[in-house]
Prior knowledge:
By secondary structure, the chain is an all-alpha fold.
Amino acid sequence: MISELIQNLIAINNIAEGQDLSFDNALSIVKKYDVMPEPNDLIDEAEIMATSDIDALEKSGIELKRESERFLNFSLSRLLNSDFKTIAQSHTNTFYERFQTAEDDLNPYWKAYCQLNNRLDYLDVNSRDYQETEKCCAEAKAEHDERQKVVHRLYSEYHQALKDTGPILFFKVEYLEVIILKYRDIASAILADIKRIKEGCS
């Protein structure tokens, strides 16, 4: 648990200290936040490690404190200046525009089919003109149906994008700040306890 948390903090700090925040990076931060352990669970694991491998716990405590302070001193301000809501909306807008463009482009094909289909109502079913129009009507319908499949696929992608952006849309960097403050305090307490234990044994 502690080891995974440290790795997630390192990843978050690396993202925050990189270039402008992308959708994938924002989603990665939110996912890492979602799996962060409860502070009490972290304390429970530290107590177990203290009895089995206090040196490993000390090393983890140092790393946890370092990455927590790195976040609070550097990464936090950069993330606070990143608009997670805008990042999420921009991502979904891209998918919506693709879907909307394809849907708009589909309308002329539907109209062409309807015009041909309506024309059949006024033609003699035994005439050559009817047969030719019927063939054109079938071709127009097939062309429309193929393009409609693309529209349906793009709508599905847009719908999935809405689901993917939900966690980012409602995420607040302050959530990270609160829990990482607690991690820093826990790390400081762990290191202080270890120091007392080692001094008591010397």
